[in-house]
Amino acid sequence: MGQGIITTVDVVLFTLKEGRLQVVLVRRERDPYKGQLALPGGYIHADGDIDSQSAARRVLGDKTGLVSPYLEQLFTFSGGARDPRGWSVSITYYALVSIDVLMSQDKARSTLLRVDDLPQLPFDHNRIIDFAVDRLRSKSTYSALPCHLLPEVFTLTELQQTYERVLGYKLDKSAFRRKINDLDFLEAVDEIRTGVHRPARLYRIKPARNLVLFDRTI
Amino acid sequence: MGQGIITTVDVVLFTLKEGRLQVVLVRRERDPYKGQLALPGGYIHADGDIDSQSAARRVLGDKTGLVSPYLEQLFTFSGGARDPRGWSVSITYYALVSIDVLMSQDKARSTLLRVDDLPQLPFDHNRIIDFAVDRLRSKSTYSALPCHLLPEVFTLTELQQTYERVLGYKLDKSAFRRKINDLDFLEAVDEIRTGVHRPARLYRIKPARNLVLFDRTI
DNA sequence: TCTATATAGTTGTAAATTGCAACTAATTAA
DNA sequence: TTAATTAGTTGCAATTTACAACTATATAGA
């Protein structure tokens, strides 16, 4: 059984560094495109992987050392033209991680590049990244998704800046706080972020809470 | 090359009949589950299919006779447990068609069942349909998607009823019309739908228009 | 021809939400 | 003490949405 179709997973891992949305690329260890920067990806292992999500987690862990970032299926790219080895399917995922966690878990094999300034990449990886950026931006307009680009605890100002950096435009402070408050997916932690000015309340995502979606009305 | 992974496409084809959202099922022609009702689906042909979207179109045409319904990728289901033949990938699509077009193009091999009253189906097809219904409902709250469940031309009242039947709740007439008007994706046609009461203006989707999305603001 | 009725389509306004700007609060540095 | 800077709140105008009543146009039947 099987039709000689190459079946892979690829992961677009986002992080926010220096105020810019960046994507993690790794050097390919084998042909095709050996030595070039590309998305972390690999074959699905029919023995071993439970499903493609597990495969994506495994591949991401192997290539970047990340343990359990936010991970969600993006889209499946397929066809005879996208891989020189033959007709292929790539089940793609996107993942979010804070730069702190990335720095502490990644074993320095990966490269960070700004999503708005990418070189030409192998396969259809530019297209996949563009698709992931579009998804991230659009989903950020109606969900708590950008939270996962921050560390465990963060201030509301940091959260707003994260939204602004992902979306590429400024948000109103009071409206933003009202919205976050209404959605009720954050809880204050005891600590306070102290710095050179007025200290800020710290928050974290309420435990056992799925990704919160904002209401839409037609 | 290839890892012995079964690679298929499955399509959830929706239509609206008797005011109910229904899904098209076909009898399986071969094992496993030969003779049972299931989603129209089949192997990807690495020779012949351009990509999985083409494969989905081909399969849908072969099994239901439909030529070019609205078709969009849904999700990719995968794993070792979902198909008795082995580790498998199903790239799933959902499609929308008006009952008129379905009746005229389908060669009567297919069965229509209400999505809220399905029997147990083979593989993970119940899960796939549930997933498709969720997607259709949620996307209908912020897009022109339900248009594709109607014939070429329709009245605004018919369009509103279509939204209401998909979403499962009533909408306000004036607000609905304002929204549709603002989005500007319909154009009036010359004809008028005449009936037993006041005649209604007929509309169609403006040509060369992508699926219109409503604005969302965080 | 007149009237009742049913559906199409519009209008007015109250209620809710959002956008904007100014305000208060708390800290450090000088 | 004061200036500066960031945190966080408040008030209100502007906009959007929800709701209900209104007008318009057809058929059917008396």
Estimate the mean pLDDT confidence of chain A.
95
- Relative helix content of chain A: 25-40%
Detail the poorly predicted runs of chain A: none
How many helices of chain A? 5
- Our estimate of the beta-strand percent of chain A is 25-35%
Q: How many β-strand runs of chain A?
A: 9
Task: Walk me through the structure.
2 copies of one chain form a homodimer. Chain A is of the alpha+beta class. Chain A is built from 5 helices and 9 strands, in the order ββββαββαβαααββ. Chain A has helices spanning 52-64, 99-105, 125-140, 156-167, 173-183; strands spanning 6-17, 20-27, 37-38, 41-43, 70-79, 88-96, 110-114, 186-193, 200-205. In chain A, the strands form 2 sheets. In chain A, strands 1, 2, 3, 4, 5, 6 and 7 form a 7-stranded mixed sheet that branches. Chain A has a two-stranded antiparallel ribbon with strand order 8-9. In chain A, strand 1 (6-17) and strand 2 form a beta hairpin. The longest helix of chain A has 16 residues, at 125-140. Chain A is elongated. The structure holds a DNA duplex (30 and 30 nucleotides).
Q: Any key phrases for this structure?
A:
homodimer, 218 residues, alpha+beta, seven-stranded mixed beta sheet, 9 strands, DNA-binding
